[in-house]
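Worked Example 4.2. Consider the chain below.
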Amino acid sequence: MVPMSTSYNRATIMGNLAQSPELRYLPGGEKAVVEVSVAVNERYKKNDEWVETVSFIPVVFWGRTAEVVNEFLEKGSPILVEGRLKQDTWEKDGKKFSKIKLVAEQMKMVGGKKANDNQSSATSDEETLVSVNATSGDQQF
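Applying the procedure from the previous section yields the following structure tokens:
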């Protein structure tokens, strides 16, 4: 039996980047970071009609994973992200705010390099899965 004080914080989403990544570095230039939203579609039937809704999930990538996301992905790119949920809280003008985001620990992307890349890329009917583990920064092709 698992003790009551134990918790489990894992989330996995699959969707498309809602905007192109913008790589930046923390002061000191040592740690890369990319923050994007991933559009996740949900389709369900309501009164005999299909309804589609979209949720925009904020995701943050760190280190080598952030650099890979910036190099290989753009707006609309399909991606699968695994990680942990983190709640940011802040106060502005006396009001308290909070936001939950997904801190990526592993991601898998489908497709080739960016369309504007001069090197060869996968064709539209060819899939290339790339997995990046945030803890090691290793790429698996």
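The first helix runs from residue 63 to 72. The chain has one domain: 11-140. Compare this with Example 4.1 before moving on.
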